[in-house]
Amino acid sequence: MSGRLVHIGSAVVDYVYRIDALPAPGTEKTASSYAQVAGGGFNMMVAATRTGMTVVFGGQLGSGPNGDFLRAAFAAEGIETLTPPSPVMDSGNCVAMISSDAERTFVSWPGAESILNLDMMAPVSVAPGDWVFTSGYTLSYPGSRKALADWIEALPENIPFVFDPTPVISDIPRPILARVLARSAWLSCNMAEAAEIAGQGDVETLAARLLADHCPRAAGVVIRSGAKGCHVRLAGGSAQTVAGFKVDAVDTNGAGDAHIGAFVSALARGAHPFEAARYANAAAAISVTRHGGSSAPNDAEIQTFLSQAAATGAPGQNQKAHQTA
Fold it and tell me: Residue ranges of the Carbohydrate kinase PfkB domain (predicted)?
C-alpha cells in the first residue's frame, strides 16, 4: 500500500462506564465496569492502521496527563504525531456511558484538540499517494474550524480528502460545512447526517443529492445504516446497497470509525468502492462484538470473517446494484 492516512482531526481520552441503563434524572447508578481509553479520532486511525495503512496525526494534543496518555496510545499503534503539544492546554475528555443494549451516551469536554491554527499545522505536509481525513468534531470547534477549512481547501488537487460530518454536524456553520463538502473526494455519513445536509428523502435520493448539490468533486458518497450495511453512490451514477452482517453486538461505540477507517484503507490499496464497502461492513460488524471504541479488527480478521460469511451464505453480499442517471 502506498501513501499514508493524514488524520487532521481530534483525539480525546474516553472515560467509559458500563451500566444496565441510564439513570433517571436526579438518581445515581453504579457502573459494572470502568475504563480509561483513547477515543475520538483515535478509533478511526486504529481501524486504518490495523488494516494496512501508515497513519500520521496532524491535529493537536495537549501537554498534560490526557495528552501523555494519548501519545502513549498512538505510539502503541505505530501512529506518529506530526505537531508539537499545546504549551497551554491538556487534551479533552469524554464520558461515555454504555448501556446493556449496547447503546452509548456521551458528555464531552474540549481541550487542546479544539484549538487549531495554521501555524500549529505548519509541520503537516502531504505527498502524492496520501489520503487526508477529518471529522465534524474539529470543524465544530470555534477555535479550529476556519483554519482547518482553509488548510483543507489548500490541499493539492491530487490528494483525496475524506470527510465524516459526525453527529455534531448541526454545530458546524453552514458556510464552513459547504467549503469542506466542496473539497471532499469521499463523504461518509449516516442517514441523519445526510438529511441534515441534503434534506429529507430515502437513501438513494439523499446520496444522489449529496453528490449533485454538495460534493461536486467527490468520487462518491457512503451513507452508513448500522447493522443494515451502507449505500454507496459513485460520481458516474452507479450505486449499490451493500448489506451488513448479523452479529451479536455488545458495544456499538466506534463502529462508524471502524467502518470509515477500513473503507479508506481498502480504497487506498486499490479496492473497488463497492468491495471496499463490504470490507468496511465486516470491520464494523466485528468491532461491535468487542468492548471499546478502538476495537477495530485487523486485515486478517476481516478476511477470515468474510471467508466464513461467504461459506455460510450469510448476508453482506452486494445487493441492489443499479445504474442511475
Answer: 5-295
H-run or E-run covering 285: helix 273-287
Collapse the DSSP code of 78 into the 3-class scheme (helix H, G, I; strand E, B; otherwise coil) and give the result.
coil
Count of domains observed in the chain: 1
Strand partners, 5: 55, 131
Amino acid in position 94: C
> Smallest Cα–Cα separation from 60: which of 44, 71, 49, 50?
71
For residue 256, give its domain range: 4-323
Report yes or no: 278 and 222 within 8 Å, Cβ to Cβ: no
Contact 55, 71 (CB under 8 A): no
Q: Which triple of cell numbers denotes residue 243?
A: 448489506
Instruction: Quote the CA–CA distance of 189 and 231 in Å, as a whole number.
Output: 10
Q: In the chain, what percentage of residues exceed pLDDT 70?
A: 95
- Report the distance separating Cα 100 and Cα 15, nearest Å: 17
Quick: pLDDT tens for 259-314.
999 999 999 999 999 999 999 999 999 999 998 768 899 999 999 999 999 988 77
CATH number at residue 187: 3.40.1190.20
pLDDT of residue 294: 81
